Protein backbone atom coordinates (compact mmCIF):
# COMPACT_ATOMS: atom_id res chain seq x y z
CA UNK A 1 0.00 0.00 0.00
CA UNK A 2 2.82 2.30 0.87
CA UNK A 3 4.50 1.46 -2.43
CA UNK A 4 1.30 2.35 -4.29
CA UNK A 5 1.14 5.70 -2.55
CA UNK A 6 4.78 6.28 -3.43
CA UNK A 7 4.11 5.58 -7.10
CA UNK A 8 1.03 7.78 -7.01
CA UNK A 9 2.95 10.61 -5.38
CA UNK A 10 5.72 10.37 -8.00
CA UNK A 11 3.18 10.49 -10.81
CA UNK A 12 1.49 13.43 -9.17
CA UNK A 13 4.80 15.24 -8.74
CA UNK A 14 5.66 14.63 -12.38
CA UNK A 15 2.27 15.94 -13.48
CA UNK A 16 2.67 19.00 -11.26
CA UNK A 17 6.13 19.78 -12.68
CA UNK A 18 4.86 19.32 -16.26
CA UNK A 19 1.91 21.63 -15.58
CA UNK A 20 4.13 24.19 -13.89
CA UNK A 21 6.63 24.18 -16.77
CA UNK A 22 3.84 24.37 -19.35
CA UNK A 23 2.72 27.68 -17.84
CA UNK A 24 6.11 29.08 -18.90
CA UNK A 25 6.60 27.02 -22.06
CA UNK A 26 3.25 27.94 -23.64
CA UNK A 27 3.77 31.74 -23.77
CA UNK A 28 7.45 31.23 -24.63
CA UNK A 29 6.45 29.09 -27.61
CA UNK A 30 4.28 31.92 -28.97
CA UNK A 31 7.19 34.37 -28.72
CA UNK A 32 9.52 31.91 -30.49
CA UNK A 33 6.88 31.36 -33.19
CA UNK A 34 6.59 35.11 -33.81
CA UNK A 35 10.38 35.38 -34.10
CA UNK A 36 10.72 32.22 -36.24
CA UNK A 37 7.98 32.95 -38.81
CA UNK A 38 9.68 35.91 -40.54
CA UNK A 39 13.11 34.26 -40.18
CA UNK A 40 11.91 31.04 -41.85
CA UNK A 41 10.52 33.02 -44.76
CA UNK A 42 13.51 35.35 -44.95
CA UNK A 43 16.12 32.59 -44.94
CA UNK A 44 14.22 30.68 -47.63
CA UNK A 45 14.19 33.88 -49.67
CA UNK A 46 17.95 34.39 -49.19
CA UNK A 47 18.60 30.74 -50.08
CA UNK A 48 16.83 30.95 -53.43
CA UNK A 49 14.40 28.25 -52.30
CA UNK A 50 10.57 28.25 -52.23
CA UNK A 51 9.25 30.20 -49.23
CA UNK A 52 7.14 27.18 -48.33
CA UNK A 53 10.41 25.26 -47.82
CA UNK A 54 11.38 27.68 -45.04
CA UNK A 55 8.10 27.02 -43.20
CA UNK A 56 8.44 23.26 -43.60
CA UNK A 57 11.96 23.41 -42.16
CA UNK A 58 10.80 25.46 -39.16
CA UNK A 59 7.94 23.04 -38.50
CA UNK A 60 10.21 19.97 -38.64
CA UNK A 61 12.90 21.74 -36.61
CA UNK A 62 10.37 22.47 -33.89
CA UNK A 63 8.41 19.24 -33.73
CA UNK A 64 10.85 16.53 -34.89
CA UNK A 65 14.28 17.78 -33.77
CA UNK A 66 13.11 19.00 -30.37
CA UNK A 67 11.47 15.63 -29.71
CA UNK A 68 14.78 13.77 -30.21
CA UNK A 69 17.10 16.44 -28.82
CA UNK A 70 18.52 16.33 -25.31
CA UNK A 71 18.61 20.13 -25.11
CA UNK A 72 15.73 21.68 -23.20
CA UNK A 73 15.98 25.21 -24.63
CA UNK A 74 17.50 24.89 -28.10
CA UNK A 75 15.24 25.73 -31.07
CA UNK A 76 16.11 24.44 -34.54
CA UNK A 77 15.16 25.66 -37.99
CA UNK A 78 16.58 27.11 -41.21
CA UNK A 79 19.78 28.98 -40.39
CA UNK A 80 21.32 32.12 -41.88
CA UNK A 81 24.71 30.41 -41.77
CA UNK A 82 23.63 27.91 -44.43
CA UNK A 83 22.07 30.34 -46.92
CA UNK A 84 25.25 30.72 -48.95
CA UNK A 85 25.71 26.96 -49.24
CA UNK A 86 22.06 26.37 -50.17
CA UNK A 87 21.98 29.15 -52.77
CA UNK A 88 25.14 27.91 -54.46
CA UNK A 89 24.22 24.22 -54.17
CA UNK A 90 20.81 24.60 -55.82
CA UNK A 91 22.40 26.45 -58.75
CA UNK A 92 25.34 24.04 -58.97
CA UNK A 93 23.27 20.85 -58.83
CA UNK A 94 20.78 22.26 -61.31
CA UNK A 95 17.68 20.91 -59.59
CA UNK A 96 15.95 21.50 -56.26
CA UNK A 97 15.00 17.82 -56.11
CA UNK A 98 18.67 16.80 -56.42
CA UNK A 99 19.55 19.32 -53.71
CA UNK A 100 16.96 17.69 -51.41
CA UNK A 101 18.80 14.39 -51.83
CA UNK A 102 21.97 16.13 -50.63
CA UNK A 103 20.07 17.40 -47.56
CA UNK A 104 18.94 13.86 -46.75
CA UNK A 105 22.49 12.52 -47.12
CA UNK A 106 23.78 15.33 -44.91
CA UNK A 107 21.30 14.24 -42.25
CA UNK A 108 22.49 10.65 -42.54
CA UNK A 109 26.09 11.84 -42.09
CA UNK A 110 25.11 13.76 -38.96
CA UNK A 111 23.50 10.66 -37.47
CA UNK A 112 26.74 8.75 -38.14
CA UNK A 113 28.75 11.56 -36.50
CA UNK A 114 26.53 11.33 -33.44
CA UNK A 115 26.84 7.55 -33.24
CA UNK A 116 30.66 7.66 -33.42
CA UNK A 117 30.70 10.26 -30.61
CA UNK A 118 31.93 13.15 -32.78
CA UNK A 119 30.08 15.72 -30.70
CA UNK A 120 33.38 17.31 -29.71
CA UNK A 121 34.27 18.13 -33.32
CA UNK A 122 33.53 21.78 -32.75
CA UNK A 123 36.39 21.99 -30.26
CA UNK A 124 38.93 21.35 -33.03
CA UNK A 125 37.97 24.38 -35.12
CA UNK A 126 39.69 27.60 -34.02
CA UNK A 127 37.30 30.33 -32.92
CA UNK A 128 39.04 32.76 -35.30
CA UNK A 129 38.04 30.60 -38.30
CA UNK A 130 34.46 30.13 -37.05
CA UNK A 131 34.08 33.86 -36.42
CA UNK A 132 35.52 34.57 -39.87
CA UNK A 133 33.08 32.16 -41.48
CA UNK A 134 30.11 33.78 -39.73
CA UNK A 135 31.34 37.29 -40.58
CA UNK A 136 31.64 36.36 -44.27
CA UNK A 137 28.13 34.90 -44.18
CA UNK A 138 26.91 38.17 -42.68
CA UNK A 139 28.47 40.17 -45.53
CA UNK A 140 27.00 37.86 -48.16
CA UNK A 141 23.57 38.13 -46.51
CA UNK A 142 23.76 41.92 -46.67
CA UNK A 143 24.80 41.94 -50.34
CA UNK A 144 22.11 39.42 -51.33
CA UNK A 145 19.29 41.25 -49.54
CA UNK A 146 20.01 44.78 -50.76
CA UNK A 147 17.92 44.35 -53.96
CA UNK A 148 14.86 43.33 -51.93
CA UNK A 149 15.51 46.09 -49.40
CA UNK A 150 15.68 48.73 -52.15
CA UNK A 151 12.84 47.31 -54.20
CA UNK A 152 15.08 46.64 -57.22
CA UNK A 153 13.89 43.90 -59.51
CA UNK A 154 16.18 40.86 -59.03
CA UNK A 155 15.75 39.75 -62.66
CA UNK A 156 16.84 43.19 -63.81
CA UNK A 157 20.04 42.92 -61.73
CA UNK A 158 20.88 39.48 -63.09
CA UNK A 159 20.46 40.65 -66.69
CA UNK A 160 22.32 43.94 -66.15
CA UNK A 161 25.35 42.35 -64.47
CA UNK A 162 25.85 40.07 -67.46
CA UNK A 163 26.13 42.98 -69.90
CA UNK A 164 26.73 46.72 -69.85
CA UNK A 165 29.12 49.03 -68.04
CA UNK A 166 29.04 49.46 -64.27
CA UNK A 167 28.05 53.15 -64.58
CA UNK A 168 25.07 52.29 -66.77
CA UNK A 169 24.04 49.52 -64.40
CA UNK A 170 24.16 51.85 -61.38
CA UNK A 171 22.26 54.55 -63.25
CA UNK A 172 19.52 52.14 -64.34
CA UNK A 173 19.35 50.59 -60.87
CA UNK A 174 18.75 54.01 -59.30
CA UNK A 175 15.78 54.47 -61.60
CA UNK A 176 14.43 51.08 -60.52
CA UNK A 177 14.41 51.89 -56.79
CA UNK A 178 11.01 51.48 -55.20
CA UNK A 179 10.28 54.25 -52.62
CA UNK A 180 7.66 52.13 -50.83
CA UNK A 181 10.08 49.20 -50.32
CA UNK A 182 12.83 51.58 -49.17
CA UNK A 183 10.56 53.26 -46.60
CA UNK A 184 9.45 49.87 -45.25
CA UNK A 185 13.09 48.74 -45.04
CA UNK A 186 14.28 51.86 -43.19
CA UNK A 187 11.42 51.79 -40.68
CA UNK A 188 11.87 48.04 -40.14
CA UNK A 189 15.59 48.41 -39.44
CA UNK A 190 14.86 51.26 -37.02
CA UNK A 191 12.41 49.03 -35.09
CA UNK A 192 14.83 46.12 -35.01
CA UNK A 193 17.59 48.35 -33.61
CA UNK A 194 15.74 50.56 -31.14
CA UNK A 195 12.74 48.50 -29.96
CA UNK A 196 14.79 46.01 -27.85
CA UNK A 197 16.27 48.96 -25.91
CA UNK A 198 12.87 49.61 -24.31
CA UNK A 199 12.98 46.86 -21.67
CA UNK A 200 9.34 47.22 -20.65
CA UNK A 201 8.21 46.75 -24.25
CA UNK A 202 10.79 44.23 -25.39
CA UNK A 203 8.55 41.32 -24.34
CA UNK A 204 6.93 41.85 -27.75
CA UNK A 205 9.54 40.62 -30.26
CA UNK A 206 10.81 43.23 -32.70
CA UNK A 207 10.43 40.95 -35.78
CA UNK A 208 6.71 40.68 -35.01
CA UNK A 209 6.40 44.47 -35.01
CA UNK A 210 8.31 44.59 -38.30
CA UNK A 211 5.83 42.16 -39.87
CA UNK A 212 2.84 44.12 -38.53
CA UNK A 213 4.38 47.35 -39.81
CA UNK A 214 5.04 45.79 -43.21
CA UNK A 215 1.44 44.61 -43.60
CA UNK A 216 0.12 48.01 -42.50
CA UNK A 217 2.46 49.90 -44.84
CA UNK A 218 1.51 47.60 -47.72
CA UNK A 219 -2.18 48.40 -47.23
CA UNK A 220 -1.34 52.12 -46.91
CA UNK A 221 0.71 52.26 -50.12
CA UNK A 222 -2.04 50.44 -52.00
CA UNK A 223 -4.27 53.44 -51.28
CA UNK A 224 -1.67 56.03 -52.32
CA UNK A 225 -0.68 54.71 -55.73
CA UNK A 226 2.73 53.39 -54.63
CA UNK A 227 1.67 49.78 -54.27
CA UNK A 228 4.35 47.10 -54.16
CA UNK A 229 4.54 44.71 -57.09
CA UNK A 230 3.43 41.09 -56.67
CA UNK A 231 7.04 39.84 -56.85
CA UNK A 232 7.90 42.11 -53.90
CA UNK A 233 5.53 40.24 -51.58
CA UNK A 234 5.68 36.90 -49.77
CA UNK A 235 4.03 34.24 -51.86
CA UNK A 236 3.27 30.93 -50.19
CA UNK A 237 0.58 28.58 -51.51
CA UNK A 238 -2.94 28.95 -50.12
CA UNK A 239 -4.18 25.47 -49.25
CA UNK A 240 -7.85 24.70 -49.87
CA UNK A 241 -7.86 20.99 -49.16
CA UNK A 242 -5.80 17.90 -48.39
CA UNK A 243 -5.07 17.29 -52.06
CA UNK A 244 -3.53 20.74 -52.52
CA UNK A 245 -1.65 20.39 -49.25
CA UNK A 246 -0.07 17.05 -50.19
CA UNK A 247 0.94 18.38 -53.62
CA UNK A 248 3.08 21.08 -52.01
CA UNK A 249 5.72 18.63 -50.83
CA UNK A 250 8.71 18.02 -53.11
CA UNK A 251 10.42 14.63 -53.07
CA UNK A 252 14.17 14.14 -53.53
CA UNK A 253 15.54 12.84 -56.82
CA UNK A 254 17.09 9.53 -55.72
CA UNK A 255 18.38 8.83 -59.23
CA UNK A 256 21.23 11.29 -58.51
CA UNK A 257 22.59 9.14 -55.66
CA UNK A 258 25.71 8.30 -57.70
CA UNK A 259 26.45 11.95 -58.51
CA UNK A 260 29.77 12.89 -56.86
CA UNK A 261 28.72 16.55 -56.60
CA UNK A 262 25.69 15.58 -54.50
CA UNK A 263 27.93 13.89 -51.94
CA UNK A 264 30.27 16.88 -51.82
CA UNK A 265 27.34 19.23 -51.14
CA UNK A 266 26.01 16.80 -48.52
CA UNK A 267 29.37 16.68 -46.75
CA UNK A 268 29.60 20.48 -46.78
CA UNK A 269 26.13 20.84 -45.28
CA UNK A 270 26.79 18.13 -42.67
CA UNK A 271 30.05 19.72 -41.48
CA UNK A 272 28.86 23.34 -41.41
CA UNK A 273 25.43 22.50 -39.95
CA UNK A 274 27.03 20.35 -37.25
CA UNK A 275 29.53 23.05 -36.33
CA UNK A 276 26.85 25.75 -36.18
CA UNK A 277 24.64 23.47 -34.08
CA UNK A 278 27.40 22.61 -31.61
CA UNK A 279 28.38 26.27 -31.24
CA UNK A 280 24.74 27.25 -30.75
CA UNK A 281 24.17 24.49 -28.18
CA UNK A 282 27.23 25.67 -26.24
CA UNK A 283 25.94 29.25 -26.28
CA UNK A 284 22.44 28.22 -25.18
CA UNK A 285 23.80 26.17 -22.27
CA UNK A 286 25.71 29.25 -21.11
CA UNK A 287 22.53 31.39 -20.94
CA UNK A 288 20.37 28.63 -19.45
CA UNK A 289 19.35 29.86 -15.96
CA UNK A 290 19.48 26.25 -14.69
CA UNK A 291 22.90 25.69 -16.35
CA UNK A 292 21.96 22.33 -17.86
CA UNK A 293 24.50 20.65 -20.15
CA UNK A 294 23.11 19.36 -23.44
CA UNK A 295 24.44 16.02 -24.80
CA UNK A 296 26.20 16.99 -28.04
CA UNK A 297 26.24 13.52 -29.62
CA UNK A 298 22.51 13.13 -29.10
CA UNK A 299 22.03 16.61 -30.60
CA UNK A 300 23.88 15.58 -33.77
CA UNK A 301 21.60 12.54 -34.09
CA UNK A 302 18.51 14.72 -33.57
CA UNK A 303 19.73 17.20 -36.19
CA UNK A 304 20.44 14.33 -38.57
CA UNK A 305 16.91 12.97 -38.17
CA UNK A 306 15.56 16.48 -38.72
CA UNK A 307 17.57 17.05 -41.89
CA UNK A 308 16.62 13.65 -43.32
CA UNK A 309 12.95 14.45 -42.65
CA UNK A 310 13.31 17.96 -44.08
CA UNK A 311 14.98 16.67 -47.25
CA UNK A 312 12.28 14.04 -47.68
CA UNK A 313 9.45 16.61 -47.59
CA UNK A 314 11.06 19.44 -49.55
CA UNK A 315 12.58 21.54 -46.76
CA UNK A 316 15.94 23.22 -46.24
CA UNK A 317 18.88 22.05 -44.10
CA UNK A 318 18.58 23.13 -40.48
CA UNK A 319 20.65 23.75 -37.38
CA UNK A 320 20.13 24.76 -33.80
CA UNK A 321 19.66 28.53 -34.11
CA UNK A 322 20.92 30.90 -31.42
CA UNK A 323 18.45 33.70 -32.32
CA UNK A 324 15.37 31.57 -31.70
CA UNK A 325 16.97 29.74 -28.80
CA UNK A 326 17.89 32.96 -27.00
CA UNK A 327 14.36 34.26 -27.60
CA UNK A 328 13.09 31.07 -25.97
CA UNK A 329 15.32 31.59 -22.92
CA UNK A 330 14.41 35.28 -22.61
CA UNK A 331 10.70 34.47 -22.87
CA UNK A 332 10.96 32.11 -19.90
CA UNK A 333 10.94 28.72 -21.64
CA UNK A 334 11.75 25.82 -19.32
CA UNK A 335 11.64 22.61 -21.38
CA UNK A 336 11.69 21.40 -24.97
CA UNK A 337 7.90 21.66 -25.04
CA UNK A 338 8.19 25.34 -26.00
CA UNK A 339 10.19 24.39 -29.13
CA UNK A 340 7.70 21.64 -30.03
CA UNK A 341 4.73 23.99 -29.61
CA UNK A 342 6.38 26.70 -31.74
CA UNK A 343 6.56 24.14 -34.58
CA UNK A 344 2.85 23.46 -34.12
CA UNK A 345 2.04 27.19 -34.34
CA UNK A 346 4.04 27.44 -37.60
CA UNK A 347 2.01 24.56 -39.05
CA UNK A 348 -1.33 26.04 -37.95
CA UNK A 349 -0.43 29.48 -39.31
CA UNK A 350 0.32 28.00 -42.71
CA UNK A 351 -2.93 26.03 -42.75
CA UNK A 352 -5.28 28.76 -41.50
CA UNK A 353 -3.77 32.21 -42.19
CA UNK A 354 -1.75 31.92 -45.43
CA UNK A 355 -3.52 34.96 -46.85
CA UNK A 356 -2.25 37.11 -44.00
CA UNK A 357 1.29 35.76 -44.43
CA UNK A 358 1.17 36.65 -48.13
CA UNK A 359 0.59 40.30 -47.18
CA UNK A 360 4.11 40.53 -45.76
CA UNK A 361 6.45 42.53 -48.05
CA UNK A 362 9.85 41.04 -48.87
CA UNK A 363 11.40 44.34 -47.74
CA UNK A 364 10.45 43.36 -44.14
CA UNK A 365 12.25 40.06 -44.40
CA UNK A 366 15.21 41.75 -46.09
CA UNK A 367 15.44 44.21 -43.17
CA UNK A 368 15.49 41.35 -40.66
CA UNK A 369 18.26 39.60 -42.62
CA UNK A 370 20.23 42.84 -43.05
CA UNK A 371 20.28 43.29 -39.27
CA UNK A 372 21.10 39.60 -38.80
CA UNK A 373 23.94 39.95 -41.30
CA UNK A 374 25.33 43.01 -39.52
CA UNK A 375 25.27 41.21 -36.16
CA UNK A 376 27.36 38.45 -37.74
CA UNK A 377 29.89 40.90 -39.21
CA UNK A 378 29.68 43.86 -36.83
CA UNK A 379 32.59 46.30 -36.65
CA UNK A 380 33.16 45.54 -32.97
CA UNK A 381 33.92 41.90 -33.94
CA UNK A 382 36.80 43.02 -36.16
CA UNK A 383 38.13 45.21 -33.34
CA UNK A 384 37.82 42.36 -30.85
CA UNK A 385 39.71 39.95 -33.11
CA UNK A 386 42.41 42.57 -33.73
CA UNK A 387 43.00 43.03 -30.00
CA UNK A 388 43.39 39.25 -29.59
CA UNK A 389 46.63 39.37 -31.58
CA UNK A 390 47.87 38.76 -35.12
CA UNK A 391 47.71 34.98 -34.73
CA UNK A 392 43.93 35.34 -34.28
CA UNK A 393 43.24 38.38 -36.46
CA UNK A 394 45.02 37.23 -39.63
CA UNK A 395 43.26 33.80 -39.88
CA UNK A 396 39.98 35.61 -39.12
CA UNK A 397 40.40 38.17 -41.93
CA UNK A 398 41.80 35.64 -44.41
CA UNK A 399 38.80 33.36 -43.74
CA UNK A 400 36.41 36.24 -44.43
CA UNK A 401 38.16 37.16 -47.69
CA UNK A 402 38.55 33.53 -48.79
CA UNK A 403 34.85 32.75 -48.25
CA UNK A 404 33.85 35.86 -50.21
CA UNK A 405 36.20 35.06 -53.10
CA UNK A 406 35.65 31.28 -53.25
CA UNK A 407 32.98 29.43 -51.29
CA UNK A 408 32.28 28.51 -47.69
CA UNK A 409 34.10 25.17 -47.56
CA UNK A 410 37.23 26.40 -49.39
CA UNK A 411 37.28 29.58 -47.30
CA UNK A 412 37.13 27.66 -44.03
CA UNK A 413 39.80 25.24 -45.28
CA UNK A 414 42.13 28.16 -46.09
CA UNK A 415 41.48 29.68 -42.66
CA UNK A 416 42.20 26.33 -41.00
CA UNK A 417 45.52 25.97 -42.85
CA UNK A 418 46.58 29.43 -41.73
CA UNK A 419 45.55 28.69 -38.14
CA UNK A 420 47.56 25.46 -38.21
CA UNK A 421 50.57 27.46 -39.44
CA UNK A 422 50.32 29.83 -36.45
CA UNK A 423 49.79 26.86 -34.12
CA UNK A 424 52.96 25.17 -35.39
CA UNK A 425 54.83 28.46 -35.22
CA UNK A 426 53.85 28.96 -31.58
CA UNK A 427 54.61 25.33 -30.72
CA UNK A 428 58.08 25.53 -32.22
CA UNK A 429 58.89 28.65 -30.21
CA UNK A 430 57.90 27.21 -26.85
CA UNK A 431 59.47 23.75 -26.46
CA UNK A 432 61.52 24.43 -23.32
CA UNK A 433 63.14 27.04 -21.15
CA UNK A 434 66.66 27.18 -19.76
CA UNK A 435 68.74 28.86 -17.05
CA UNK A 436 72.47 29.68 -17.10
CA UNK A 437 74.63 30.43 -14.07
CA UNK A 438 78.41 30.47 -13.52
CA UNK A 439 80.46 28.83 -10.80
CA UNK A 440 84.07 29.99 -11.06
CA UNK A 441 85.28 29.37 -14.59
CA UNK A 442 82.63 26.76 -15.28
CA UNK A 443 79.22 27.53 -16.81
CA UNK A 444 76.20 25.53 -15.75
CA UNK A 445 73.21 25.29 -18.08
CA UNK A 446 69.85 23.72 -17.15
CA UNK A 447 67.42 22.98 -19.96
CA UNK A 448 63.98 22.13 -18.61
CA UNK A 449 61.72 20.51 -21.19
CA UNK A 450 58.02 21.27 -21.40
CA UNK A 451 55.17 18.89 -20.62
CA UNK A 452 54.66 17.84 -24.26
CA UNK A 453 57.68 17.82 -26.60
CA UNK A 454 56.70 16.94 -30.19
CA UNK A 455 58.77 16.43 -33.32
CA UNK A 456 58.02 20.07 -34.18
CA UNK A 457 60.34 21.08 -31.34
CA UNK A 458 63.27 19.09 -32.70
CA UNK A 459 64.76 21.87 -34.83
CA UNK A 460 64.64 24.51 -32.08
CA UNK A 461 66.18 22.17 -29.48
CA UNK A 462 68.90 21.09 -31.91
CA UNK A 463 69.84 24.73 -32.61
CA UNK A 464 70.22 25.46 -28.89
CA UNK A 465 72.29 22.32 -28.26
CA UNK A 466 74.72 23.05 -31.10
CA UNK A 467 75.33 26.58 -29.78
CA UNK A 468 76.29 25.48 -26.23
CA UNK A 469 79.89 26.69 -25.59
CA UNK A 470 82.75 24.35 -24.66
CA UNK A 471 83.57 23.45 -21.05
CA UNK A 472 79.91 23.66 -19.95
CA UNK A 473 77.93 21.49 -17.54
CA UNK A 474 74.57 20.79 -19.15
CA UNK A 475 71.57 19.38 -17.32
CA UNK A 476 68.64 18.36 -19.55
CA UNK A 477 65.65 18.05 -17.22
CA UNK A 478 62.65 16.00 -18.33
CA UNK A 479 60.98 15.77 -14.91
CA UNK A 480 58.06 17.87 -16.14
CA UNK A 481 57.60 15.96 -19.41
CA UNK A 482 54.76 13.53 -19.90
CA UNK A 483 55.77 12.82 -23.49
CA UNK A 484 58.92 13.38 -25.58
CA UNK A 485 58.88 12.46 -29.26
CA UNK A 486 61.39 9.76 -30.36
CA UNK A 487 63.05 12.21 -32.81
CA UNK A 488 63.76 14.62 -29.95
CA UNK A 489 65.05 11.78 -27.76
CA UNK A 490 67.41 10.74 -30.53
CA UNK A 491 68.71 14.32 -30.79
CA UNK A 492 69.30 14.51 -27.02
CA UNK A 493 71.11 11.16 -26.78
CA UNK A 494 73.25 11.92 -29.84
CA UNK A 495 74.25 15.24 -28.27
CA UNK A 496 75.19 13.52 -25.01
CA UNK A 497 77.24 10.91 -26.88
CA UNK A 498 79.29 13.51 -28.79
CA UNK A 499 79.43 16.26 -26.15
CA UNK A 500 82.65 14.98 -24.52
CA UNK A 501 84.61 16.02 -27.62
CA UNK A 502 83.88 19.67 -26.68
CA UNK A 503 84.49 19.17 -22.98
CA UNK A 504 80.76 19.36 -22.28
CA UNK A 505 79.39 17.23 -19.46
CA UNK A 506 75.76 16.25 -20.03
CA UNK A 507 73.46 15.01 -17.28
CA UNK A 508 69.99 13.71 -18.12
CA UNK A 509 67.33 14.06 -15.41
CA UNK A 510 64.24 11.83 -15.61
CA UNK A 511 64.46 11.35 -19.36
CA UNK A 512 63.27 7.90 -20.42
CA UNK A 513 64.44 5.99 -23.44
CA UNK A 514 60.85 5.54 -24.62
CA UNK A 515 57.54 7.36 -24.01
CA UNK A 516 53.98 6.21 -24.61
CA UNK A 517 51.44 8.77 -25.80
CA UNK A 518 49.32 9.60 -22.72
CA UNK A 519 45.66 8.65 -22.82
CA UNK A 520 42.70 9.94 -20.85
CA UNK A 521 41.77 6.95 -18.73
CA UNK A 522 38.97 6.44 -16.27
CA UNK A 523 41.52 6.85 -13.47
CA UNK A 524 42.48 10.33 -14.70
CA UNK A 525 38.82 11.31 -14.97
CA UNK A 526 38.22 10.10 -11.39
CA UNK A 527 41.21 12.13 -10.18
CA UNK A 528 39.84 15.23 -11.91
CA UNK A 529 36.46 14.78 -10.24
CA UNK A 530 38.16 14.45 -6.86
CA UNK A 531 39.90 17.78 -7.41
TrEMBL record:
Membrane-traversing stretches: 26-45, 51-68, 75-93, 99-116, 123-143, 176-195, 202-221, 262-284, 344-373, 393-424
Show the InterPro entries listed in the entry: SLC26A/SulP_dom, SLC26A/SulP_fam
Q: Indicate the segments forming the SLC26A/SulP transporter domain, all copies.
A: 22-387
The superkingdom listed in its UniProt entry is Bacteria
Transmembrane helix keyword on record: yes
**One family name in Pfam for this protein:** Sulfate_transp
What this protein is called in its record is Membrane protein
Report keywords, A-Z: Membrane, Transmembrane, Transmembrane helix
> In this entry, which stretches build a coiled coil?
none
GO biological process annotations for this chain's record?
A: transmembrane transport
